[in-house]
Amino acid sequence: MTLDLVSRRAARRRAPTVDIDLYGREALINPQPVYRQIRDAGPLVWLPRHHVWAMGRFDDVRGALRDDATFRSGAGVAANPVANLLGRKTVLSSDDDRHSARRRVLMQSLTSRAIRPSLPILRDEARATVERLLEQDTFDGIADFASRLPVAAVADLVGVEVGPQQLLRWGAGTFDILGPMNRRSVEATPTALGLLLYTMRLRRSRVTPDGWARSVFDAADRGEISRSEARTMVIDFVAPSLDTTILAIGQLLWSLGENPEVYAQLKAEPELIPTAVVEAVRLCSPVRGFTRTVARDTEIDGVRLRAGERVVLLYAAANMDERHFDNPQTFSLQRRGSNLGWGHGMHTCVGMQLSKLEMQTLLHEVLARVETIEVSDPVPLSNNCLQGFRSFQAKFA
What we know:
By secondary structure, the chain is of the alpha+beta class. The protein is 53% helix and 11% strand. Strands 1-2-8-5-3 form a five-stranded mixed beta sheet, sandwiched between helices. Strands 4-10-9 form a three-stranded antiparallel beta sheet. β6 and β7 (303-305) form a beta hairpin. α10 (148-158) runs antiparallel to α14 and α14 (227-258) crosses α16 (273-284). The protein starts with a helix and ends with a strand.
């Protein structure tokens, strides 16, 4: 046994250890007890079942996201090497100038100014969705409400000749493979590979003239990114633009149904719509967390991290940290300040503005047409990287 290995094991013995399966079924469908256990154990804990470190407290996770010189994404953000290899040319799996160049290309399509012309289309789809559901006795809060606008918007805006249901399957599979090599990752691999193979074969002639996908090919023509990067970066449009927004919209609807007094306040004070959207994203935290690779030896609360080790930054645990948020389990329109639902730092979600616009547009239409919301029968999602509702019953009146 080498001295380096001995020292690492000694450091882990001195560090808090939480012997749980972070990606097991119980932790996925009922995550809050697991997150609390990690937060209560310390700022940095060792997860022996996955051979990684984990952070779950708000200040520590936010600090790590700000310190992109130490906590790096370039070697991938998954908990297994296969997914990290597959995602190596995406915006998410990059650092420094390469990340900035790729991000700049995506943001040409995703800034508030760029997506503003799509607002009338989003309003029409949101209005049609609400009016249709008002005519039904009950509906599925995810499939019938939360999914409609993102699917309609993204399928058209990305500009690829792929049906919305296929985009949804690709998105969910791409997130599922970001866990360790457990059953879910293995079963999702063919789906995620399907998206990768599709993008590898993608050509300018197979995308619409005004779509987002076309913009990355234009960037390649200008020499800002390579042709292979352009193809792979279509994944950055498809995967993050659907599932995370759908889950956040589902949480928003559920929270309003569970808190009729908050819904009444929103109807009386629609200027609080942006606050309600941000609060729903905090409660949902659709991305549980990504891993980062430690670039250099560092110390956190007396625990020594070695270069090359991985840390899971748990956004979902951080957003429920009672050290930072008062009554974090409560949906509140009085809450101020930011959260980590869209990430933080240089890797803040590139689709955040589109997600906000979709959620705010839907909520405007609901407030204008719906007097009461009822919700029941929640079914949690089981995904290595995503969290939220797979379905629940809802009723508008």
